[in-house]
Amino acid sequence: QVQLVESGGGLVQAGGSLRLSCAASGRTVSSMDMGWFRQAPGKEREFVARYNWIGDSTSYADSVKGRFTISRDNAKNTVYLQMNSLKPEDTAVYYCAARLKIGADFGSWGQGTQVTVSS
Predict the structure, then answer these.
(1) What average pLDDT does the segment 34-60 reach?
(2) Where are the beta strands (DSSP E) in the chain?
């Protein structure tokens, strides 16, 4: 069973930066697709970024492209989301998720970490 624990959220001013961490246990992050999602108050959860274990490729939502970077540290079994040039509209609870099989849904989720960007 995969367990995911996020950390690194907080309050930051617009234009600032934060780095979120997602520590995994039960399986190595190098053998799973790892994703970051977010949910703002009153809105549906949305995709933010993904690190694909096959090919070591990454993908991003258009709204964060060029500002956010997803990365992976296999030695620490941790995935990161570096968030730069933050905007108030980035305010949300950010969730880390894992997908164990290609084409499957993201089935393992962390508890979430709050990111608040003030204007």
Answers:
(1) 95
(2) 3-7, 10-13, 18-25, 33-39, 46-52, 57-60, 68-73, 78-83, 92-99, 108-109, 113-118
